[in-house]
Structures are given as structure tokens and as C-alpha cells.
């Protein structure tokens, strides 16, 4: 089987989710670092690789994918490991898919889009969009409350009793809010979940580089 090639940035939340799963599943992959803050995604060379000019982008044989959750589900179908990460049971899988679809316009918008607007947007485009900042703040608090309610009843964010890729995707977004020292004291269940997911060895491994890079991003 051809080697998986991943173009990613450790400061990108979806990139870290894909890299974390590669570590969990012990997938041999070739890593190409792309620095979003340096404008690497807009180069002519990268644009030929990724039609969306975004990370992560994966190449496997003739297949090119540039949407992180599509990459994750493809890798799971190609490199089978324990069932909990993306269950074969149709109801459990539907719950994981439910989270993955909800994630984009809620936790991703409230965390990742907020940080892009505050840190990378001004460097690349010279502006912080106030409307996006305000909407992101609302989405984040609403999303955190939804997660808190879920974690009152279940151990994991996809309403499952075992950890899944939904937890990896969600963790990578929320942990990056350390940049703005987000306060989770209002959400004790979410705070506890964050600590539990952060102790997964492969999560620790992929976030080691992120934590080293973190001091460079001052707001």
C-alpha cells in the first residue's frame, strides 16, 4: 500500500486531530510542515496540491483529501484498529457522525475560527473582523454548554461510553483556547474531560510540539 502523505501545521487544530489518529493507529506517514501564519497555504506549489489551500491535506495514492473529518474517516476505513474510534455499530457510528457534523459550526466556529480571526487573520489580511469575533464568542459559550450537558450523562462528547475520534477532534479545538486563557470553571465536566483526553499518550505526543510553539502566539 502506498504511503500516506500529510501536509499539516501543528498550530492547526484539524491538523493535530489527523496527526493524532495517525499515531493512535500507527499509520506510517510522511509529514510535510505547512505554516499557515507564514502564508504557506497560498503558495502556487501548495495550491496545486490542495484545491482548498488548507491544512490538513492528505495524499494517498491518487486520492487527495483536504477536509479533516473526511481524512479521519478514510484513514479509519483503510487502517482498521479498535472499533471504539469509529464504531461499526450503525447507532454508535451515527452518534460519532452527529458530533463531527455539529462540530464545524459550533466548537470549530467558537474556537478555531475565533483564534484565526484574532491571530492569523490580521497577519495575512490586516484586519480583525469584529462581527466574526462576537459571533464566535456566542457560539463557543453555547457549544461549551451543550458539551457540559452531554458530559453530565455520558463519558465522551459523542454521547458514547468509549473514546472516539469525536473526542480527538473536539479536544484539539478546545485546548488551543489556552492562547486566550479561556476559563472553563463554569464547565467542570468539560474541564475534567479535557484533562482525561489530554492524558492519552498519542494526544500528548502530538501536542508536545504545539505547546512548544504556543509562546510565539501572543495576543
UniProtKB/TrEMBL annotation:
Location relative to the cell: Cytoplasm
Record's keyword terms, sorted: Cytoplasm
One GO MF term attached to the UniProt entry: glutathione transferase activity
GO CC field: cytoplasm
Pfam families found in the cross-reference section: GST_C, GST_N_3
Residues covered by the GST N-terminal domain: 2-83
GST C-terminal domain sequence ranges: 89-219
One Gene Ontology biological process: glutathione metabolic process
Protein name, entry field: GST N-terminal domain-containing protein
Organism the protein comes from: Stentor coeruleus
Biological classification of the source: Eukaryota, Sar, Alveolata, Ciliophora, Postciliodesmatophora
